Amino acid sequence: xxxxxxxxxxxxxxxxxxxxxxxxxxxxxxxxxxxxxxxxxxxxxxxxxxxxxxxxxxxxxxxxxxxxxxxxxxxxxxxxxxxxxxxxxxxxxxxxxxxxxxxxxxxxxxxxxxxxxxxxxxxxxxxxxxxxxxxxxxxxxxxxxxxxxxxxxxxxxxxxxxxxxxxxxxxxxxxxxxxxxxxxxxxxxxxxxxxxxxxxxxx
Length: 203
Prior knowledge:
There is one protein chain. The chain is mainly beta. The protein has helices spanning about 30-35, 70-75, 125, and strands spanning about 5-25, 75-100, 105-120, 140-160, 160-170, 175-190, 195-200. The longest helix is centred in the N-terminal third of the chain and has 8 residues, at about 30-35. The mean pLDDT is about 95.
């Protein structure tokens, strides 16, 4: 608390989220192709270089034609991972500027800094495009830094009428500067009736 009329608060925080996804029973496209081809490589050599270890012939014709050993060969499990980190620091100043007939004129101003970092890593088999039903995926990652400043004010002109205004400017490392603001008015002629109008602009 800075004085009887103003107070300041701040926060510094760090957060991290880890995500792991395990999928069982995926079908490996390369294993299916090699099994159907009699476990031959591009040179026609059975179990030659380039053929997956433990290759088993795969018969896809007719109901129940795929043997358990073939299923075990073409099935594979995958693991995808992701990580998200956020660093945040903020400070806010709130208080009363002066008194009006309707009450204190309140103000709030503040600044904030955020750094968001994320990375997503698919399973190696997905990166190579080997899993049937999935397009080839590549690891993704990046960082976005945001710097913001804001201000708000409320003016209770008289008991039944007050005005509000607020603005926020945000500077993102990804998209640049964004400016948002609001204007509002509140009219309360009697205790059980209140009229409120507002205009907001969000970038």
